[in-house]
Amino acid sequence: MKRTRYTITDKIITRITGCIAGITLLVLAVWGARTCYILHRFEQTNDAQVQEYINPVISRAGGFIAAVRFEENQDVKKGDTLLLIDNREYNMQEEQTKASIEKATAQLQVLESNMHTLQKTAEASASQAEAIKAKVWKQQLDYDRYEKLYKAESATAQQLEDKKAALEVNQSDYKAAQDNYAASQSRIEDAAQEKGVIRAEITRLKALLSRHRLDVTYTVITAPYNGRMGRRTIEQGQMINAGEVLAYIVNNETDKWVVANYKETQVAHMRIGDTVNIEADAYPERTFRGTIISLSPATGSSFSLLPPDNATGNYVKIVQRIPVRIKVAGNRQELDLLKAGMNVNVSAVKKNNL
């Protein structure tokens, strides 16, 4: 009886073992068939990462940070204030430039008043010259008459000499009046040139004032678009310089994409516009869709700092990879699940047509 019981138990164990082996073989067969189908149907790579625009927040003005109004990983809207820089020095520069403009404007007004006075002086010199000119004309006529009378012995030499002296004095006065008029005109021209210089200085100061006002606006650093802030490394009271990177912001207004580095033997049948499946390591139960938007014009190593030169040293053939850019489809809620730098697996359908 004991021998029979052991025999039945052995049969049961054998059957169970056979069933398990059969199920295992079936599972392996299904898995193998599925793997072969996937390998035959899709081009896959796990050398792929999520990318999106991550831009630096750069200061365009230097100074002490008066306030920091963002935290790490905070969502911000376009125009939100991120940082405030102490703007007192920039305000003082603006006020100094305003005062310089007011001073130059006052100088221009004084110069215009002087030009008016010079114009009146020139007109008076011109009138005086005309009056003396009339006297010269009258003296010339008198001299000519006395010269004729002297020749006719009807006038004395002294009378002729008196007329000649008076004529020469009036001619000298006329020349002096003309010189005074020319000098007045010259002073007017000088004043006009000086007005041009002051006007040019006012134009320069206005441009400088605009720059100072622009510098004041630079002391308020705002978000350039809707996005999420990165790591915060600055604090209130810290000294910064113009052009310094203060933080990083991830742009929420642009699409996300995946850069999949396919082997050169895998891209023969890939075309722009092909649909691909994307599986993120962080969400293995979800499948994202994407569209190929471009293929790199060269291998990744060709864009490296020191591209390999196969003409030197011992040559070892290494399969190169071609970066393929894939736009991720989906709504904003789905796209927010994918973060820049995440590793993903990409599957592209093979196509037989070239």
Describe this structure in words.
It is a single chain. This protein has 354 residues and is α+β, with helices and mostly antiparallel strands. The protein has a domain of 133 residues: Orthogonal Bundle (Helix Hairpins). It is built from four helices and 15 strands. The strands form three sheets. Strands 1-15-12-13-14-11-2 form a seven-stranded antiparallel beta sheet. A hairpin with a 2-residue loop joins strand 12 and strand 13. Helix 2 runs antiparallel to helix 3. The radius of gyration is 48 Å and the shape is rod-shaped.
In round numbers, the mean pLDDT is 83
How many helices? 4
CATH architecture group name of the domain at 88-220: Orthogonal Bundle
Largest sheet: 7 strands, antiparallel
* Amino-to-carboxy terminus distance: 74 Å
> What is the strand tally?
15
Strand/helix succession:
HEEEEEEHHEEEEEEEEHE
Beta-strand content bin: 15-25%
**If strands are numbered along the chain, what order do they take across the biggest sheet?**
1-15-12-13-14-11-2
Domain Multidrug resistance protein MdtA-like barrel-sandwich hybrid: 57-250
Membrane topology: Single-pass membrane protein
Subcellular location: Membrane
InterPro entries: Beta-barrel_RND_2, MdtA-like_BSH, MFP
